[in-house]
Amino acid sequence: MFKRTVKFLGFRISLILLVVILVILAIVLGLMLGYGGLGGKNPADIFKPSVWQDFFAKLNGK
């Protein structure tokens, strides 16, 4: 019984981790596609803090 429960929990945890990794990957790829492909800029620039500071400044109306 204990062995089956541990196996079940291990499967659930690995499934949750897989979903989290896939969601993070989809977000990163979406940001890169949107910034680089649609915005016409370098996709790697999305990881620069200055891009995010500019983004949040525009959201706040500064």
Question: What do you see in this structure?
Answer:
The chain is an all-alpha fold and 62 residues long. The chain has one domain (2-60). Helix content is 79%, strand content 0%. It has two helices and no strands. It is elongated. The model has no long low-confidence stretch (mean pLDDT 91).
Any key phrases for this structure?
62 residues, mainly alpha, RNApol_su_b/EpuA, DNA-directed RNA polymerase subunit beta, transmembrane helix, membrane, transmembrane
Question: Could you write a compact summary of the structure shown?
Answer:
By secondary structure, this protein is mostly helical. It contains two helices and no strands. Helix content is 79%, strand content 0%.
Q: Number of domains in the coordinates?
A: 1
By secondary-structure content and strand pairing, the structural class works out as mainly alpha
Proportion of residues in extended strands: under 5%
Largest sheet properties: none
Oligomer status: single chain
- Described by the principal axes of the CA atoms, the overall outline is elongated
Number of helical segments? Answer: 2
Distance between the ends? 60 Å
Order of helices and strands: HH
**Which parts are unreliable, with pLDDT below 50 for 5 consecutive residues or more?**
none
Beta strands, count: 0
Tell me the helix content: over 70%
Return the average pLDDT rounded to an integer. 91
Rg over CA atoms, rounded to whole Å, is 19 Å
